[in-house]
Amino acid sequence: MFYSSFGILAILVHIIINYDVLIKNDYRDVMPAGSTYRQFLIGILIYYVSDICWGLLYERRLTALTYADTVLYFLSMVVSVLLWTRYVTEYLDESSLFSRIIRSVGMVILLYEIINLIINFFRPVVFSFAEDGTYQPMTARYVTLAIQILFYSSASVYSLYMAVRGTGITRRHHRTVGLCGLTMAAFIILQAYDPFLPFYAVGCMLGTCLLHTFVLEDEKAERKKHLEDLLHKEKTQREELEAARHKAYTDSLTGVKSKHAYLEAEMELDERIAVDEVNYFGLIVFDLNGLKAINDTMGHEAGDRYIKEGCNLICCTFVHSPVFRIGGDEFVVILEGNDYNNRNGLIDDFDKHIHENIRNGKVIVSSGMDEYRPGLDDRVQSVFERADRQMYENKKYLKKLTARSSS
Hints:
- By secondary structure, the protein is an alpha+beta fold.
- The chain has two domains: 2-231, Rhopdopsin 7-helix transmembrane proteins; 259-406, Reverse transcriptase/Diguanylate cyclase domain (Alpha-Beta Plaits).
- Helix content is 73%, strand content 7%.
C-alpha cells in the first residue's frame, strides 16, 4: 500500500488541478493544442491507474495480474512520452527539424517498447517474476528508461535554448517545458536505480503541475484578457453605434428627432397598419411663418433662433408626443396615448399661444391636424397629406391675422 499511496496522491492532485481540462474540457477549442494537452493528461491518468494497481497487486503476489498490469504500466509510460512530444511541439508551434525529430523519437520509443513487451512473453527482456512472485527488472527496462532520460534531457536543453532566444510569455513557456523535461529526466534516473519506489509517478505529478501553473494558468489569463478585450471592443462599438444612431436620429439645431427618425417611425406605423394593429393616432404638421424674411433681413443666425423658438413652443405644448423636424421650418408631431385623447384641448392651447405671439410680434407657427381613419387609410402618408392641407389653410389665416395686427 506504501507504493500505491504515492500514485493515489498523484492521481488526486492530477484531477484537482486539471479539472477544467479533464472533466469540463473547457480548453479544447480555445487553448493552443488544447485537445492534445487533454490527451496527454488522460495518458498520464492511465499511467497513474496502472501504477496504483501494480503496487496493490504486487503486495498480494497476484503474479498473473501483476504481469498484465506491468505490461500496461510500460505501455502507458511510453504512450505518455509520445503524447508529451506531440503536445509540446504543437503548443510551442515548432516546425523545426529538432521538433520533427523528437516527435519521431516518441513514436520510435513506443514501437520499441511494444516489440520488447511482445518478446517478453517468450523470453524475459524487460521484466520477469520469480517463482515467489518477486519482480525482477531486466536489461530492456533499463534501456527504455535510459532512452527516455536522453530524450527528455535533449528536449529540455532545446527548450531552454529557445527560452534564452525568446522574449516575454514565449520565453516563460519554453522555460517551463524545459524544466518539466528536466524534472522527468531526474525522476526517471531515480526510478532506474530503484524500481520499487514510484519515482516516475512523482516526476509526472511535478511535471504536470509545472505545466499547469506556468502554461495553463497563462492561457487562462490570456483568455480572460482576450474576452475582456472583446467585451470592451463590443461595448465601444455599441457606444459608437448608439452615438451615430443618436446623431442620425437627432436634429442638430433643435435637439428634437430628425427627418430620418420620422421616416422610420412612419415605416413602423405603416407596418402596424398593414397588420391591423393600429386603432388610432393623429398627426400635426407645423410650419414657421416668416422665416425667409428673417433670414433675408436679419441673417441666418436670427433665423436659427426663430426656428428654436418655434420648436420650443411645439415641445412645451405637446410634452408627451415625439416631435420631428422634417425640413428647414417644418415639424411633425405624432399623437398617441393621452396627447391623442386631449388633442383638441392641446391644439386650442397652441392656437392661443400663436395668437398671443402675433400680438407681441413673436414666433408664428402654422399647424394642421388630422387623424388616422381605420378602413380608409392604408398608410401614414394619407394622414400627413390631410394634415398638411389643413396646415396651409391655417397658414393663410394666420398671415391675414398678422397683416391686420401690423396695420
